[in-house]
Design brief:
37% of the residues lie in helices and 22% in strands. Strand 17, helix 11 and strand 18 form a beta-alpha-beta unit. Helix 2 crosses helix 3, helix 5 crosses helix 9 and helix 10 packs parallel to helix 11.
Length: 437
Amino acid sequence: MTRPPSPAAPPFCAIDFGTSNSAIALSGADGRMALVDVEPGHVTMPTAVFYQVEGLAAHEEPRRLYGRQALAAYVEGHEGRLMRSMKSILGSTLAEQSTDVGDGRSVRYLDVVAGYLQRLKTVAERQAGKPIERAVLGRPVYFVDDDPERDAAAQAALASAAWSVGLRELSFQYEPIAAALDYEQGAEREALVLVADIGGGTSDFSLVRVGPERRGRLDRKDDILASHGVHIAGTDFDRHVELASILPLCGYRGLGPQRAGEAPREVPSRVYFDLATWHLINTVYAASRVAELRRMRDFYGDPQQHRRLMTVLDEHLGHALIGQAEAAKIAVAEGGRTRIALDRLEVGLEATLDEAQAVQVLDADLDRIVDAAAETLRAAGVRAKDVDVVYFTGGSTGFRPLTERIAARLPTAMALHGDRHASVAQGLGVHAQRLFG
């Protein structure tokens, strides 16, 4: 008698929910993991949601756009709210709070995270043709620096969001460990690898033993000699670049008017720090705050600076400016010097940024990241000369001055670069295949 074929095993996935970009790997009929095209022609998608509210009746929910569509809708000036860097609110008091998305509508921050995870899951399920209930999720070594309770709360919040969209069987894996698993797929001999995973929100390091004889093990706990990280990365770089190169033209660190017998005072700076922080930008657009800042015209010794600031607020240019700061950082990493055109603030206005300026304003952050790498070695009791490979992954490893500083601390190690945007997702897929497959 012929036996009926056994039903195919339920699919499972691995999700790299990143601060700047996200990706998902899916199990196939052959048991192998492959990255899903989360947008046409792209295996990564910007971690962005746009709540579009224009043209809605009072009872209608905002239309949600994701990834590149979300960014395009914002740039095109549609009425609504752009949300980015949602990962950064995990572990903070903001996670359970609601935020205005326009036209009197509000949404809970954690529901924004859940909605984005649902989008990734839906795309994967469309490809799988079946529901997905099992997943590995990546997480940074520390969501929150030096605060174990808030760090645990951040993972619990992410797990809650994943559970709410139907992911019932969850496992977490450190993102730098995932990158090590990705590197290990091509390793021909045993090596001691320092993984440097530097993304948008965190810089994480893990010292891991890898090799062909180890790659089949599910439990790799003994191969992880140490992990360490700091909550400093690409979005912090963007903030510093904007504060240093763009926002001074709008009054940051500007001085008030000269009055007899008094030294001019620096104008209040809080608005500028909020404008340079993704998840706080929209707080600046509140009507009461705009009115207060408009009344502060006499605080500015240079009226042009105040006019430019009000243009930013009136035309909601905060996200566009931080996007220009990010683009300038990338351009400097690739070419050494760049112009930042600011015609939307004032015709003909521009700022410049070169590598020396970028390094100067980022110097303290770069040092803290490099120190985190060194601390990983100290925690493992390993000397720099014993490390065989430094494996760089994460979007911010495109900033050459940073990777050069890290490599200089390990002069005998081979410096290798993985796929900046996909290594972690691929490594999470390796772990998911071993766990669920």
